[in-house]
Design brief:
It is built from twelve helices and no strands. The chain is mostly helical and about 280 residues long. The protein has a single domain, classed as MetI-like fold. Helix 4 packs across helix 12, helix 7 packs across helix 8 and helix 9 packs antiparallel against helix 10. It is globular and about 75 Å long.
Length: about 280
């Protein structure tokens, strides 16, 4: 096949790719992701409406929406959501910094890997709940212990992702950089960072997901505000609608923060030649 034929064959795919990135495709992809939860919500609303189920323990969407409106009108929803978001942001920052540093260190140095990795892997196996009594004893029951617990949850996915990414960089790529006589900074900027970045983004998203899981355990430690506090309050007062509303708030804010990471890192990954181009744009 000649170069012209190859170019002609590639043009429809390129045109299709450009078409998918523009026009209606840009708006239908996010809408498609809402189809399943909206269908499930409408189905459960219909089941309760036609008295096929009581809806007492699992309230229908209309009741959950009314609970959201009530919490928002009193300011409780905003106050508790911001408190949880602030804790996750602080713990995520600490966990990312520590996980990136130790992951790069153990991934680059075989000696540091043999020295540190066995201990870190043993610590990774400890359940999150097991840390709570120790952190309360060391750091008290206030914000510091909560933020550190979230940081522990974020640390391990980031550490594992960075260690694996650095250790698996193709030796041939590094040798090409040496042939071009790249400096140390140039080697990192043009060889190592592009090779590590895709795995690093996945590690960040995994760490953020665990951060949102750990914040629930953190807010069980005597928190007076936060979405975890709304969960406990709803359980103690027998308010299933408030419990479900807090769970939905966790899901929405967690998805938005995950999408924010994807949005921020997408420009740095445009060089990738992927089979699917929609995975970093949803």
């Amino acid at each position: 096949m000649s170069l012209v034929q190859m170019t002609a064959t590639a043009e429809p795919a390129t045109a299709d790719k450009k078409q998918r990135k523009s026009g209606l495709g840009r708006y239908t992809r996010p809408a498609l992701g809402l189809l399943l939860p909206l269908a499930l919500a409408a189905g459960w609303e219909a089941v309760v409406h036609f008295h096929l189920a009581s809806g007492r323990l699992v309230p229908p969407p209309s009741v959950i929406y009314a609970t959201f409106a009530e919490l928002a009108a009193t300011g409780e929803l905003q106050r508790n959501a911001l408190a949880t978001l602030a804790r996750v942001a602080a713990g995520f920052g600490l966990g990312v910094v520590a996980g990136t540093f130790l992951g790069a260190l153990t991934g680059y140095s075989g000696f540091m890997f043999r020295l540190l990795d066995p201990t870190l892997q043993a610590l990774r196996a400890i359940p999150s709940i097991a840390w709570i009594p120790l952190f309360i004893l060391w750091l008290g029951i206030f914000e510091t212990s909560k933020v550190v617990l979230i940081a522990v949850g974020v640390f391990f996915p980031v550490y594992l992702g960075v260690t694996g990414a650095v250790a698996s960089v193709d030796r041939k790529i590094v040798e090409v950089g040496r042939l071009f006589r790249l400096s140390g900074v140039g080697m990192v900027r043009r060889i190592l960072l592009p090779a590590v970045l895709p795995s690093y983004v996945i590690a960040l998203r995994s760490g953020l997901g665990l951060g949102w899981m750990f914040v629930v355990a953190a807010e069980f430690m005597g928190a007076s505000e936060g979405l975890g506090f709304l969960l406990v309050d709803g359980q103690q007062l027998g308010k299933p609608a408030q419990i479900v509303a807090a769970i939905v708030a966790f899901a929405v804010i967690g998805k938005l923060t995950d999408w924010l990471i994807v949005l921020i890192t997408a420009p740095f990954l445009r060089w990738e030649d992927r089979v699917r181009t929609d995975t970093v744009e949803d």
